[in-house]
Task: inverse folding
């Protein structure tokens, strides 16, 4: 099956109200164009250079989501290029995004990445760190950054119960922040979790944005 058929199938399976990020990292521009022609507008990349190169060759109405670990020295060129940075994994990175966005005169939309998975290699705030950031109202001093919600990943395992419990934990953290009326947050409405292998479980646990690559584009070309 080709990219457009894969997209059509996945979109028919995703419940209404759940957004789809087509994870296009490491895939050539031609593959993205095929997905674009099939109606996809939101694409996920994990390297700044790749967004900058692809953006030049593709239509201007594409919404780029940055989904990888963002190094602080790569923040500046990314500002103004994304619809959403999904992977803010430290307060230092958040402050830098805010400063660069303020300088550039743009507002950058971000998700806070929470780490619940078993792998030490994954990035993100620990649940208690993220909750503390909001309880201490760390968002109030932001000038040019809008926190739209939470992103997270489940452990890389075939143990479905473990995956479900990871997603449930991420969703609980998201709701604890979203439903805390004392925070007075506006537009905190995005829970991004779930990938090609586990997105149905993520959606069952509350995800309203999923990130799918392999099931759309096939195996990556490294």
Result:
């Amino acid at each position: 099956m080709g990219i457009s058929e894969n997209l059509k199938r996945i979109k028919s399976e995703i419940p209404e109200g759940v957004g789809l990020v087509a994870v296009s990292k490491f895939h050539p521009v031609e593959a993205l164009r095929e997905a674009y022609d099939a109606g996809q507008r939101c694409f996920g990349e994990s390297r700044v250079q790749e967004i900058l190169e692809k953006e030049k060759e593709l239509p201007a109405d594409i919404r780029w989501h940055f989904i990888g670990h963002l190094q602080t020295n790569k923040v500046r060129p990314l500002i103004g290029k994304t619809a959403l940075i999904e992977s803010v994994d430290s307060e230092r990175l958040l402050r830098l995004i805010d400063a660069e966005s303020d300088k550039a005169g743009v507002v950058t939309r971000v998700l806070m990445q929470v780490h619940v998975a078993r792998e030490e290699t994954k990035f993100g705030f620990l649940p208690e760190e993220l909750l503390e950031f909001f309880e201490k109202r760390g968002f109030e001093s932001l000038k040019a950054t809008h926190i739209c919600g939470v992103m997270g990943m489940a452990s890389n395992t075939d143990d479905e119960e473990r995956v479900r419990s990871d997603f449930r934990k991420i969703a609980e953290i998201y709701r604890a922040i979203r439903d805390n009326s004392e925070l007075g947050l506006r537009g905190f409405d995005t829970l991004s979790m779930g990938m090609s292998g586990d997105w149905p479980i993520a959606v069952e646990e509350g995800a309203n944005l999923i990130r799918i690559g392999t099931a759309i584009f096939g195996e990556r070309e490294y």
Observations:
- The chain has a mean pLDDT of 96.
